[in-house]
Specification:
The chain is mainly α and 128 residues long. The chain is built from five helices and no strands. The protein has one domain. It starts with a helix and ends in an 11-residue tail after the last helix. Pfam families: PDEase_I (PF00233).
């Protein structure tokens, strides 16, 4: 009933649509783990290439944390989740009840924290 009340306002419907688009754009940490890892690697590589090109051209480096020689992918993912994802998706979960999505988020956060605690900087732990 409260959702119907929220949806009766045109302004609220527009806000909800904008939030859905934003959430879809940054939702990688809420995917199943293997997809999350794969896309974290692709995104990181895109940022590494940008940093490489900025250095090559003598331009200011926009994202110095994405220097491929020093970057910790787990730390970057943990920061991204802490800064952007957790509060936004907690709000969506309260609004729409998204237990699977929230479980993926929790699993992925724990995965990145585990790598970081082992002082690993890569997408995956070394083979055992």
């Amino acid at each position: 009933e409260s959702i119907k009340t929220v949806l009766t306002s045109p302004e609220n419907r527009i806000l909800i649509k904008r939030m859905l688009i934003k959430c879809a754009d940054i939702s990688n940490p809420c995917r199943p783990m293997e997809q999350c890892i794969e896309w974290a690697g692709r995104i990181s590589e895109e940022y590494f290439a940008q940093t490489d090109e900025e250095k090559r051209q003598g331009l200011p480096v926009v994202m110095p944390v994405f220097d491929r020689n020093t970057c910790s992918i787990p730390k970057s993912q943990i920061s991204f989740i802490d800064y952007f994802i957790t509060d936004m998706f907690d709000a969506w979960d309260a609004f729409a009840d998204l237990p699977n999505l929230m479980q993926h988020l929790d699993n992925n956060f724990k995965y990145w924290k585990g790598l970081d605690e082992r002082k690993l900087r890569s997408l995956r732990p070394p083979p055992e």
